[in-house]
Amino acid sequence: RTAPTQPQPNQVCCHHFGQCCLVFCGVLHRCQGYIKARMKSEEKRRTRFHSGHVPFSGIKTYVDPDTYEDPTQAVEEFAKEIDPSYICIERVIGAGEFGEVCSGRLRLPGRMDIPVAIKTLKGGYSEQQRRDFLREASIMGQFNCTNIIRLEGVVTNSRPVMIVVEYMENGALDSFLRTRDGQFTVLQLVGMLRGIAVGMTYLSDMGYVHRDLAARNILVDKSLVCKVSDFGMSRVLEEDTEAAYTATGGKIPIRWTAPEAIAYGKFSTASDVWSYGIVMWEVMSYGERPYWEMSNQDVILSIEEGYRLPAPMGCPVTLHQLMLHCWQKDAGQRPCFTDVLSFLDKLIISPGSLLTLATDTQR
Ligand code: ACK
């Protein structure tokens, strides 16, 4: 820059004042730019993975572990490291893509021991598999709700790598209902649905989109409390045997997924609400397969043509109406989880509203 010409004494002030003003305005402008950029990036960070969800101020929002440069940092931040000597593995209860799922007990010093489920990462894994495995823990560790599976902690400093969660005596909801066909009252079934709606309301308030809400991903405890589980989106969909590849290359559980999510990957809380409607149908039909043996392609075409699942046998008409509401083509017309929850609460408070069955009205 060229130096300013020597000013006259009475001009000094003015000149300097002008310069100061310019510098100040420049700094102010840059500051505002900086603040705006910060706000923008914060906004981006919050919404990038939330499919347009605008979180309420003051309410904790979900942080996607993928936004961490080093994903192990996310695990450290959101999951407690457990000393493996506190874990007592008792038996194998299932198999996941990454290794066995076991039941056992967690004996933390100075605390009563509690039953837990332990997911293990089998040996010979790649660094990517380890990250994918632990990703679920860093998501689950951010939630604190009675209707979301509780993370007790992780073992990452020794082998095998483990994720320890609360134990759910009755296992997955779909198989549980299939083995107990017709054994519950409508009110008990609505109680289960209410629990799932509480969990989903919590997740949507946190800005988390589940993408794979289905009865197989709900666990049931000994008191019939239902809890949402299986977090991790892409990994979960890889593992989900129901997930099929779409024309656009995504892996999606077609029967549970909203049409806009299948067609152009628009996953949102509203698409979770569609899946919730399918879970309602699964629960009211005691674990029947949605759309029975129809092929995925036929399901997509039928939905496009306006076909919707009919009410299961013995299903109150009000519940089927709620399902149909969740399955509106226009995502904006679907209820939000708070609406679903208050609707179910009203039914529970006045159970007389559950007496008219959908089959009665058809007749
Ligand atoms: O239907 P299930 O008994 O419930 O079979 C599957 C199996 O492990 C493989 O995922 C069961 N499972 C998973 N997490 C838990 C848990 N927290 N408590 C009890 N069982 C669980 C699931």
Automatic annotation (TrEMBL):
Q: Name one Pfam family in it.
A: EphA2_TM
- Provide the reaction this enzyme catalyses: L-tyrosyl-[protein] + ATP = O-phospho-L-tyrosyl-[protein] + ADP + H(+)
GO CC field: dendrite; plasma membrane
Q: Which SMART domains match?
A: TyrKc (SM00219)
Task: Specify the Protein kinase domain's residue ranges.
Answer: 87-348
Membrane-related topology note: Single-pass type I membrane protein
Its keywords, alphabetically, are:
ATP-binding, Kinase, Membrane, Nucleotide-binding, Receptor, Transferase, Transmembrane, Transmembrane helix, Tyrosine-protein kinase
Could you say which EC number(s) this protein's record lists? 2.7.10.1
The protein depicted here goes by the name: receptor protein-tyrosine kinase
Organism listed in the record: Neogobius melanostomus
